[in-house]
Design brief:
six-stranded antiparallel β-sheet, elongated, about 30% helix, alpha/beta
Length: about 325
C-alpha cells in the first residue's frame, strides 16, 4: 500500500478495449478479473487488486482489471458530469502499479447498458473473456437496470465453477474509503485528506499551455494547465510538486478564475521554485500536497505580490517537511 507522501506512480499498463462484438485474443483469456469503475484507484481499489492477484496466484493465471470508459454517469446523465479523479490513461497506470498490469476496458454506451445482467456474466465475463475468477466490491452492480449484484455474480459464476470474491467496504483510519469521499475532500480543498484516502497525493496530468504572461511581470512566471471541465477542485492556493522530465520539483499553484484580473475560465497556474527551464508543450504531472488558502481578489498588484511571497514561503516550509517523492 502506498503512503500519502509517496509519489503518484506511473506504470506501463497493457490495455485491451472491448466493444460489444470485439473478439478477445486467446492469449488474453483466462485471467482473474477485478471488476469496477476504479475512478481514482484509491485504497479500496488497491484492496480489490490485492485480492485478485492472490486469487490469480492460487489458480496459476494472470490478474487483470475489468473497467468501463467513459464513466457510466456521463452516458446516462451527460448534463451532470461526474468529477473524474483520474483520466482513463492515468487510471490504467495506477491499476498497473496496484498489480493489475493488464486492463480490459469496456466501451460503455447505451447499447452496452441494455445488456441483461445474466448475459453480462455468461456471455462477456465467462464467455468471451473466459474469466478464471472474479473479484468485486460489496456494492458492485451491473447489467440492465443495475440488476446484477455481487450475490447474483457469485451464484451465476458458481454454476460454472468460477470463484467470486466479494470485498467488503474498506476503511482507512476508521473511515470507509470511496471515490465519492475523495471527490468531497477535493471539493473542500482538503487535499491532505484526499491523499489519505487515495494512498498518495491527488495529481493531474496535462500539457503546459501559454497563458497571458502576467506572472512574469509579477516575478512569478507560471506554468499553465487547463483541467477537465468536470473538475470541481476548490479554488485556491496549494503547495504542489510537479514532475518535469522525470524529476519532482517543489512549487506553489493557484487554481481558479483569477478574480484580481479577469475572472476567466479556471486553470491551474504553477510556479516552480528555483527553476528556469522552458515548460511549454511539455506534459507534466502536478501533485497537490497541501491547501494554503482560498482564492481572493486584491485591490492592488503590490498587495497581490506580497501575498504571493507569503504563499511561497509557506509552501516551501510545508514541502521541506514532506518526504521526497520517489520517481
Amino acid at each position: 500500500m502506498t503512503r500519502p507522501d509517496a509519489a503518484p506512480p506511473s506504470g506501463q499498463p497493457d490495455s485491451f478495449v472491448l466493444d460489444r462484438d470485439a473478439a478477445v485474443p486467446e492469449a488474453l483469456r483466462g485471467a482473474v478479473l477485478a471488476l469496477g469503475n476504479f475512478d481514482g484507484v484509491h485504497r479500496g481499489h488497491a484492496e480489490l487488486a490485492r485480492v485478485a492477484t492472490l486469487m490469480a496466484a492460487e489458480r496459476g493465471c494472470a490478474a487483470a482489471a475489468f473497467t468501463f470508459e467513459p464513466h457510466p454517469r456521463s452516458v446516462f446523465r451527460p448534463d451532470q458530469p461526474v468529477f473524474r479523479l483520474t483520466s482513463p490513461e492515468v487510471k490504467l497506470e495506477l491499476l498497473a502499479q496496484a498489480g493489475l498490469a493488464r486492463s480490459f476496458v469496456l466501451h460503455f454506451d447505451r447499447e452496452i447498458a441494455a445488456i441483461g445482467a445474466e448475459s453480462f456474466v455468461d456471455d462477456l465475463l465467462l464467455g468471451r473473456l473466459g474469466a478464471a475468477g472474479l473479484v468485486c466490491g460489496y456494492d458492485f452492480h451491473f447489467g440492465k437496470g443495475r440488476t446484477g449484484s455481487p450475490e447474483m455474480l457469485q451464484a451465476r459464476a458458481g454454476t460454472r465453477g468460477v470463484p467470486v470474491a466479494v470485498v467488503p467496504s474498506y476503511s482507512w483510519a476508521g473511515e470507509p474509503v470511496s471515490s465519492t469521499l475523495v471527490r468531497t475532500a477535493l471539493e473542500m480543498g482538503d487535499v491532505a485528506h484526499a491523499a489519505e484516502l487515495l494512498g498518495r497525493p491527488w495529481f493531474v496530468r496535462g500539457e503546459i499551455a501559454h497563458g497571458d504572461k502576467r506572472g512574469r511581470d509579477l516575478g512569478y512566471p507560471t506554468a499553465n494547465m487547463h483541467l477537465a471541465r468536470d473538475c470541481r477542485l476548490r479554488y485556491g492556493i496549494y503547495a504542489v510538486r510537479m514532475k518535469v522530465d522525470g524529476i519532482w520539483r517543489d512549487g506553489v499553484a493557484s487554481f481558479g478564475s483569477r478574480p484580481t484580473f479577469d475572472d476567466g475560465a479556471p486553470r491551474l497556474e504553477s510556479f516552480l521554485f528555483d527553476f528556469s527551464g522552458d515548460l511549454y508543450g511539455k506534459t507534466v504531472d502536478v501533485a497537490l500536497v497541501a491547501w494554503l488558502r482560498g482564492e481572493a481578489k486584491f485591490d492592488s498588484l503590490d498587495a497581490l505580490i506580497a501575498q504571493m511571497d507569503k504563499d511561497s514561503l509557506q509552501a516551501r516550509a510545508i514541502l521541506a517537511q514532506t518526504p521526497p517523492f520517489l520517481c
